[in-house]
Structure formats: structure tokens, C-alpha cells
Q: What sequence folds into this?
């Protein structure tokens, strides 16, 4: 069974090459496809401070996708963990989800900050961030998952 | 441009019909595709308390997808907002993202609680929930986005 998606828009500007860290201050735009959408598709979005952006890691070639385990970033001091126990980009279906700040809505052009996607990235969905969808109950995570985020934003 | 995805697994058990509210206590399993994955794909996942699950709203027929604005749940007391300013399922690409609790990892079978997906739902990706990916900065949202979550979990 296959599922076919069509990007709803693309990332414009911000970074032009992927890098591991320091995404927090990066500003970019998300431009929605004007052939399929009008401004009513984002009506009311400016009432939210944050967006959840689903995008495609389009620069990962399918043959590089990992199905088993590996060390995040290849770091010898971190454990070998399964691809579904980490958020690395060489993953099956190459899907990404990131919450970023929404700075401005201008028609079909959204200015965002802290989106870890490069110029040209296909955007697959946008959702408003609602606090009601935050994790319920106490969050537990291993030390490497904290260490990997130290310089990320 | 089209992007083709293949489900990595399916939701088994839990609810058999979609409903709006009271998902918090629902337990279900996610069964990963044993033809493509082995247990190393989820090695180390049990160190995380929560999972981010990307799935497909497969029961929404494509002709029902909304591209403009509508009132969430059709509620007259809530504003008309764009499909990308709400999290309703009749959305372009029909993609869903939910954070749920991970109760147990048994080979390729994961037991979860509070996943708002019905039996048979195609799962497209799993990511460990890391606190470093929570929203940076203060979250702002309109009143309806709080009210809609009142009975959700």
C-alpha cells in the first residue's frame, strides 16, 4: 500500500545547506502553493504563536535510509539506537515534524523562526500548536537525547 | 511533484470508530511491518516515556478534504478558521501527528496510551518525544483552541 502526498508549499530562504545546530535564530518563509490555496486556508492562524510544520527531508536519497540502529550523529559516546528511537533524517518515509515560532502571516506567505528546514524543502502540512497536544504525564528520556539538543536552537 | 510513502506499520486495537473525545485512556498497539523491520529499528526506544506518532487519516475520502476555512467541529460558537489553522482530519495530505505515552516495547509491537487513531490506521513514522523539541518561547493560542481540548483526553 502506497500513500501519495503533494507538497502544500515550500520553505523559502533561511539556510541553504543543512547543518546540525544553531537553528533557533534562523528566519525563513513558508510559501503555500497559490495554485491550490487562497488566503482563507490560513485564516485565523495569526492567533497562534507557534506552528507545527511537517516537511520532507528531500535531500536524503532513498538508498541512504536506515532501517536498523546507529549512533545518533555517529557519536561514539552515544548509544546505538534504532532509527525510530531517534529523530535523524535518514529515516523511512523521510518525514520531519518541528514546532517553530510564527512571526507573520502575509497572504500565503508565513514568516517563521526556528524551523530546521533548508530553502526549497517541501512542506507537507501545517498545524497550529495547541498546548492541549503537549505530552500528558511526566516525560522521561535518556541522557543522549538531552545532550544532542544542547546547541540545537 | 508527488511524494510516495509506505506505511511503516499499523495501529491494532483501541477504538474501532473515530470519535471526537476521551482518547486519554485508550490503549492500542502499533505493529511495525515485520517484512521490512527487525527489533533493532526500535532499540533504545523504551528509554523514552512518550512517542510522536505520524499517521494517515485514511478514512477521510479525498473529495472531503477542505482547502479553505470552516468552523472546527461545525460549532457555531467557534470562529471560521483555515484548515491550516486547525487540526481537523479533512486536511490536504490527511496527515496526523500525536504525542502519546509508550507503555511497552515487545519486539516490533509497541503498546501505547492516548493515541487518537483507530484500529487499522497506517502509521507513517515514529519519533521519540524529546523535551528539546517543545515550543521555544511563550505559547499563545485563541480561546477556541483551549475549549476544543476540554474533553479530548
A:
Amino acid at each position: 500500500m502506497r500513500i501519495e502526498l503533494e507538497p502544500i508549499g515550500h520553505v523559502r530562504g533561511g539556510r541553504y545547506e543543512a547543518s546540525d545546530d544553531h537553528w533557533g535564530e534562523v528566519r525563513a518563509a513558508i510559501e503555500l502553493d497559490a495554485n491550490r490555496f487562497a488566503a482563507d486556508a490560513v485564516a485565523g492562524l495569526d492567533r497562534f504563536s507557534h506552528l507545527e510544520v511537517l516537511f520532507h527531508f528531500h535531500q536524503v536519497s532513498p538508498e541512504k535510509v536506515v532501517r536498523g540502529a546507529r549512533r545518533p550523529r555517529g557519536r561514539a559516546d552515544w548509544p546505538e539506537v534504532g532509527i525510530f528511537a531517534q529523530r535523524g533524517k535518514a529515516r523511512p518515509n523521510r518525514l520531519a515534524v518541528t514546532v517553530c515560532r510564527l512571526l507573520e502571516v502575509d497572504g500565503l506567505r508565513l514568516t517563521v523562526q526556528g524551523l530546521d528546514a533548508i530553502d526549497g524543502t517541501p512542506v507537507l502540512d501545517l498545524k497550529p500548536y495547541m498546548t492541549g497536544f503537549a505530552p500528558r504525564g511526566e516525560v522521561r528520556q535518556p541522557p543522549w537525547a538531552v545532550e544532542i539538543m544542547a546547541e540545537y536552537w
